[in-house]
Amino acid sequence: MQAPAHDDFQYVQTALRCGARDYVLKPVVRRDLTELLETIRGDLDAERDAARAREAIGLQWRQRLPLLQEQYVLGRIYGGEAPGIGEREEARRLELAGFDGADGEGAALRFMGAEYRVPPGRLPSGEADDERLALAFRLVSREIAADGRWSRRVTSFADKAYPRIQLFAAAAADEAESEALLAELAAALLAAAEGSLRLAAVAGIGVACSPAEGRTALRRAYLSAVTALGRAPAGPVCRIVRADDPEGRAARPSAGTETIEAIRRHIEDAYRDEISLAMMAERFHMNVTYLSELFKKQTGSTFSDYVAEVRLGRAKLLLRDTAMRLADIAEWTGFSTASYLSAAFKKRYGLSPADYRARLRSDGL
C-alpha cells in the first residue's frame, strides 16, 4: 500500500493489523517498490510451499492411520494388561474411540469378524478360492466401515492368525448400542458381499467388555467373535451369528442332586475361568471332602476330570469348526498353555490336536 509522507500513521498501523505486508512512502522509488514486491512474492511462495508440505504430511498421516490403528489394536489384544496413560493418549491420537479406557463414550467395546464364502459357479471349474476375492472382500469391508455411520466408532483391522477374516472393533456407550452398531454394519457387509462381489458372507459378533478391564477381558471378547464365526453353518450362506453370553449361573445350596446339578451348570457356563473344588465348596457352603465325594457319586467322575472333560469337549469343537490357533483355543477353553491342552487332548482322544485336524481334512469334514 502507499502512504502519504506525513507523521500520522494510525491508518497504516490499522492496515498492518488487518494483514497488509508493508508500506511505502511517497515519493515512491521504483527500486524500493520492486524489492518490496520481490520480498512479498518470496513470502507468499514460502507460505504456499509450507501449506503444501502440511497437506502432504496430513495425507501421509491419513494413509498410515489404518495401519497404525491396526497395530495398536493388536498390541492391546496380545500385549499388556490395563492401558496406561501413554496408551490412552496414543489411542486418542490414533482416533480410536473406546480404547482410551475413559468413561462414557467407549464404555462398551465389542469385536466382530466377517468371512466370505464362495458360492458354486463363482469361480472357474476346479478353483475353490481366489486371492483377488479375498482382497476385494477386505477392501469393500474396510470401505463400508469407513462410512460416516461407523467412522470413528468402528475400527477395522486384520490379524495374521486369521487371514480369511476381516475384523472390527466397535465402541459405544453401552453393550446394547455396541451390538446394534455391529449388527447394522454386519448387515451392510453381507449385502455388499452378495450384491457387489457375488459372494456369501458370515459375521460373528462377540461379547462386550470394558476397555479398562485389561488384556484378559479384551482377549476373551476378541476370541468370542472368532468363535461365533465357527458356529455359522458351513457352505455359502449369509448369516450373522452372536456369541453366547458367558455369564455363569449361581445356585443356592439345596439337596445333593440339585447342588451337583447347579455346579455342573456353572462348569458348563464358566469353564473358561479358573474353577476349583474349593471355590465350589465355598460358593455352595459345603465341606470340600464331602462335596468331592458327593460330586463323584452323582456324576461318576471326579471334579477335576469333569472340568477337563468339558474343556476338552469345547476345544474339540473349536478345532473342528474354526481356524483358531491352538494357543487361542487353549486360552479360550481355560487351559493354561497350548502344550498343556495338547497333552490333555492326546491323552483323552489318542491323537494330538494337529493330527485331529489333519484327520478331519483327510475325511473331508
Short description:
With 365 residues, this protein is an alpha/beta fold. It has helices at 10-17, 30-78, 85-93, 131-145, 175-195, 215-230, 256-270, 277-283, 288-299, 303-321, 326-332, 338-349, 353-362; strands spanning 2-3, 24-25, 108-117, 154-157, 165-172, 200-209, 239-242.
Please provide a written account of the structure.
The strands form two sheets. A five-stranded mixed sheet has the order 4-5-3-6-7, sandwiched between helices. Strands 1-2 form a two-stranded parallel sheet. Helices cover 55% and strands 11% of the residues. The chain has 13 helices and seven strands. Strand 4 and strand 5 form a beta hairpin. The protein folds into three domains: 51 residues, no CATH class; 164 residues, Nucleotide cyclase, GGDEF domain (Alpha-Beta Plaits), CATH 3.30.70; 107 residues, Homeodomain-like (Arc Repressor Mutant, subunit A, Orthogonal Bundle). It has 365 residues and is of the alpha/beta class.
Write the layout of secondary structure elements.
Layout: E1 2-3, H1 10-17, E2 24-25, H2 30-78, H3 85-93, E3 108-117, H4 131-145, E4 154-157, E5 165-172, H5 175-195, E6 200-209, H6 215-230, E7 239-242, H7 256-270, H8 277-283, H9 288-299, H10 303-321, H11 326-332, H12 338-349, H13 353-362
Parallel strand pairs: 1-2, 6-7
Antiparallel strand pairs: 3-5, 3-6, 4-5
Helix pairs in contact: 4-5, 10-12, 11-12
